[in-house]
Amino acid sequence: MQKLIKNGQLTQDYWTILREATGPEVLNAVPGKNFIVPLKFWKLYREDLADYAGEVAIWLDSDENVNDIGSELASFSLIALNFPIFSDGRSYTNARELRECHKYEGEVRAIGDVLRDQLYYMSRCGFDAFDLRSDQNPENCLTAFADFSTSYQATTSESSPLFRRR
Amino acid sequence: MYQYDKYDHQMLAERVIQFRDQTERYLAGNLSDSEFLPLRLQNGLYIQRLAPMLRVAIPYGLLSSNQLRKLAFISKHFDKGYGHFTTRQNIQFNWPELEDVPDILAHLAEVEMHAIQTSGNCIRNTTTDQYAGVSADELEDSRPFCEAIRQWSTFHPEFAFLPRKFKIAVCGTKIDQAATQVHDIGVYLIKNSNGEVGFRILAGGGLGRTPVIGQEIFEFVEKRHLLTALESILRVYNRLGRRDNKYKARIKILVRETGVEKFRSLVMQEWSQIRDGPQTLTEEEIDHCKSFFVDPFYMEKDDAPEELTAALKNDVLFSSWHQHNVSEHKKSGYAIVTACLKETGVAPGDVTDIQLNYLAELADEYSFGEVRISHHQNVVFADVEQSELYAFWKKLKTKSLASMNLGLLTDMICCPGGDFCALANAKSIPIAESLQRKFDDIDELKNIGNLRINISGCMNACGHHHVGNIGILGVDKKGEEFYQVSLGGSSQNEASIGKIIGPSFAQDEIPAVVEKIIEVYKTSRQNKEPFLDTYRRIGIEPFKEKVYAKTD
């Protein structure tokens, strides 16, 4: 069953997440696939990865900082941010900084412990793709984005705080 | 006070629907305990020792008479006929049924109330001085800025899963009654050398296991930068605050471990990215917030009218109450009255549905239909005509609302403790009661003078024991309840953390221990110095000697 929501719809996932990777050979074992690799892995092997036939994106854990990605940030079509557990809120800050400070326009994907009741806040912080935890009901999750119709703050999804719109 | 517009109403209605759905999914078994936990907490719902507890937000302590009536209704229909005002100027209900909570929230929404973010690891209710806007010594009314903060912090998507809870206080009065320095963020309205009013912002204060006074992060920020400055601090905290140990997760530990200089530079780095951004307050928005806190329709009246002076002369009890419970108002002919909820035999902060309804009636009749809840768990009528004080006092008396012990030893801060709270190590309400019974002579209480006793049933310090002149903390010793006593704490302008006097005591020893402490104070005080000044002058030793002296 599809469990990736992108731009408000359930969709086919063309990416494979490498949760752990020892060396660049793991990619070459399956040529042509699109991989999301750990930021550390990419930093270590970026030259080896340059020749890889498929596309490579990165994911950051919640204790990593998007400001450490470096100048190639804009070259990724996708950056994934991990929720080791849904109650770890650091990736919300990373998402906003990607969008608002780095003006990143590619896909920002939530991975890990991604649950229905956090989707709305995630979307407000700039996530536009959600790799749901396998036990989540995808149809029900689609309704989460309409939990609220407006918001007080200026965030990624609404560039103007309510007090400037009232 | 602030009036909801269609946006506020809409979001609140959507929140009620959202939580109803979450509760249904939980009860149907589609949401695990651990996943429902932060959702219910961010709606103020705890699972307590005996029943769920629902904490309802009272933004910066301000309540209308309609809201009071709704709280009375809820306590009567969904609880056991009473509620409990907390040290965050909120009210909590100790006996609702989990299934009823969505309905209670719907009732609250009718009067623009809710339980949003009254618990959980998010930004909690912003508090302020209970005399804001009417105090004679105020630089500027803090409430418009509290409202701006309320809106900014409500449903803030980035800060719903912080390392730990986060509390903000704002103070615009000279005498700080808001315990501003022991908050995660403390905001003072100040005037800079150019005569411009803005904010001085502290961070890293807090009570709990490790009590700390906040440190200055922004020496002066212009009003328009308030929200971006706060957001920068929160962002640094969200990213770097410890998540490996619940007891080291508050911002005070981060500031201490990072060092205030480094922490400040991290905040400035964040601030440089969002300063002047869309969240910058506009002139119009500041005016808009201020428009909800304009003076009521005061009449031109003189101070000390005949009705008052005569009553003060003729009625000793009234005069005694007036001396402690009535404060100076900025407008001549008016007074600030505090109804002290510290009657002997009643848990501090507890209020019945009958009292709530009566408070509403009195607010309508005497104080423009509004009251404030103080962090000392009392109820303030901010705008009472001096000529009406005597009549007002007589009415308070009919519903046990005229305790004349405001600011005195028996006006204690006390958490619900082991009688209700699942976290508590020890009971706290019986300690408060034993002290009220020991010190039941009003003349003696007045002789002792201003003194704060704060009682917490555990390290989490909901009863602010660290900043009590005398602090009492319940501790668990091999399954038995003991009490640790500290001296010299204060949450006022010269804030300080109390010092532990020595080994802890059994419950029944506490009244005698406090009595000995008071004896040392009375024999050592010079002129009319209050307890805290004597303590600061003579130190802890004389108290220690007396308290632990062997009886022959």
TrEMBL record, chain A:
> What's the short name of a Pfam family annotated to this entry?
DUF934
Q: Which organism is it from?
A: OM182 bacterium MED-G28
* Record-given protein name: Oxidoreductase
UniProtKB/TrEMBL annotation, chain B:
Provide the Nitrite/sulphite reductase 4Fe-4S domain boundaries: 119-273, 412-547
* Name of protein: Sulfite reductase
| Gene3D superfamilies with a match to the protein in the record | Sulfite Reductase Hemoprotein, domain 1, Sulfite Reductase Hemoprotein,Domain 2
| Biological source species | OM182 bacterium MED-G28
Q: What molecular function does GO assign, one term?
A: heme binding
State one Pfam family annotation: NIR_SIR
Location of the Nitrite/Sulfite reductase ferredoxin-like domain: 53-111, 347-397
* Protein origin, superkingdom: Bacteria
What are the alphabetically sorted keywords of the record? 4Fe-4S, Heme, Iron, Iron-sulfur, Metal-binding, Oxidoreductase
